[in-house]
Amino acid sequence: MAMVRGADVLAESLIGLGVDTIFGVPGDTGVVFYDALHAVPDQLRHVLARDERHAAAMADGYARVSGRVGAVEVSSGGGTTYVVGGMGEAMASGVPVLLITSDIHRSSRGSGALTEIDQLALFSAVTKHSAVVEHAADIPAMAAQAVRAATEGRPGPVALIFPEDVFDELVERETLDLGPAASRLVDVPGLREAAQADRVTEAAHLLAGAERPAIMAGSGVHSSQAWSELAELAETGAIPVATTIHGRGVIADTDNWALGVVGNNGGRPYANEYLASADVVLLVGTRANATDTNSWQGPAREGTAVIQIDIDEDRAGRNFPGAVRLVGDARTVLSQILAELPKAADDVREARAGGVVATRTAWREQRDPVDLKEHQLLPRDVVELVDEVLGGAAVWVADPGTPTPNVATYRQITTPGRDVIIPRGHGPMGYAIPAAVGISVAVPDRPVVSVTADGSFAMACGELETVSRLDLPILYLQFTNHSLGWIKMLQHLYVGQRYFGVDPGTIDAVKVAEGCGLRAERVATLERLRELVAEFARNPQPLYLDIEVPHMIDVLPPVPAWQTALDGDAERPVY
């Protein structure tokens, strides 16, 4: 009988389930698993990160653009406590991430051993499923169970915890099922459930009878790959489509029915106004929280008929208790509605589409004059220029703060797909630098544009060495305003301009990036920016550009609540 270690069983199990990449940082308790990885580098690629939180962000970015489970590995103690920050974003955003952690020896439990912590308790708030693997023989079944949990229902992170001696434990290979799974369990969605037929009929009836219908679409459309069904529903029913930030790309910005981003971060005024005045709103794959709905104004909680499609029964109708609840997979349920929705009359279609296109065009052409200081560039100009040069070839990822509203609303998407990644589950600073690594690994034939800011840079700049080591085609754009700009703006608007704790010293990002092996430059003109981006387009090599932008206090980004505050309503929005 051939005997194999638990660590080798885990590696083979992951390969059989369809996992081919794992991001991680080694530690004492995981040494044997790394020895197992050493034996299968062509089947299970390991990407070494410089920090466990960043490794989780890499797996998160990988999962979002690939439509597959992203995998991350860390060791006990500091590794597990660091990775929680990255897992929190995945949990809140519904991203399927498999976390593999090693733990102290089973015989050391309760002894106060170095790195001992209750990992099940630690991960309880940031995973939808977690388990301790006590025996090597249980690994194949428990790995399959975890991956299935990550992909079925609302996608989300899961954790498997391995005491280090389980990695050493020997088991008879012939007793294990280590062959390829019958189906690739890593692919999302795991199941395509249909909604109740009577509720589908009710929803179709409401949409057909609406005078001013609207759709608000979120990341559930991406997870379900329901882009064509959404476009067909909009065309059939003559229904304008707005997106949340997570829903960017579910419909092309050039589509006749595309309203653009709504909500309180990057939301376009005309889109918010349309949602606020709609009589029937279909929510598809979105939490529809206070940020998405512009503080419950669009749709309003009263006076508007709401239909909500969500894979999670607990989330459907949570924020709109009177909603028609359609529990099921977005693509499946949209197809159900399409089967019962009559085609809108030609005159209705022409009037509604014409209104959407005219309003959207007028908004895009509006350019308010801005008084910039020397060497400053406007974030909108930067986003639009880079987008123009690279076109639809690039995948974009943006950090919280200045990058989020500017990338969300000004990047022009011409083909439906998940080409804009912005972490709005928790809004973690420092996400975009490492997430770009995971994105690039997932789609190696496409350039990646990662938009960060000086505050986020300080948190994650170590991963630029990872980018250099892997020679990834990533263009980094840093918006520098020499402060923790978002929080300083809140202090400016809501606490009497009493600024505190928001003005750290400046770090020379160019020198740091160069020290990590990247080409880097401080850019002060749009002409030079165009030259550099054109060079990157011809030969995509790692490039870091530091761009000074005006502070939000001086030039307001597209954040509707802040304009309301400047107009005299100083009540801070509830998120």
Task: Explain how this protein is built.
The chain has 575 residues and is α/β, with parallel strands linked by helices. The chain folds into three domains: 3-175, 3-Layer(aba) Sandwich (Rossmann fold), CATH 3.40.50.970; 197-364, Rossmann fold (3-Layer(aba) Sandwich), CATH 3.40.50.1220; 379-566, Thiamin diphosphate (ThDP)-binding fold, Pyr/PP domains (Rossmann fold). Helix content is 39%, strand content 16%. The protein has 22 helices and 20 strands. The strands form four sheets. Strands 3-2-4-5-7-6 form a six-stranded parallel beta sheet, with helices on both faces. It starts with a strand and ends in a 9-residue tail after the last helix. The mean pLDDT is 96.
SSE inventory with pairings:
Layout: E1 3-5, H1 6-17, E2 21-24, H2 31-38, E3 45-48, H3 52-66, E4 70-74, H4 78-93, E5 97-103, H5 119-123, E6 129-132, H6 139-151, E7 158-163, H7 164-168, E8 170-172, H8 197-209, E9 213-217, H9 219-224, H10 227-237, E10 241-243, E11 258-261, H11 269-277, E12 280-284, E13 305-310, E14 324-327, H12 330-340, H13 346-365, H14 379-390, E15 395-398, H15 403-410, E16 420-421, H16 432-442, E17 448-453, H17 454-460, H18 464-470, E18 474-480, H19 485-494, H20 509-515, E19 519-523, H21 526-538, E20 543-548, H22 560-566
Parallel strand pairs: 2-3, 2-4, 4-5, 5-7, 6-7, 9-10, 9-12, 10-11, 12-13, 13-14, 15-16, 15-17, 17-18, 18-20, 19-20
Antiparallel strand pairs: 1-8
Helix pairs in contact: 1-2, 1-6, 3-4, 3-16, 8-12, 10-12, 14-15, 14-21
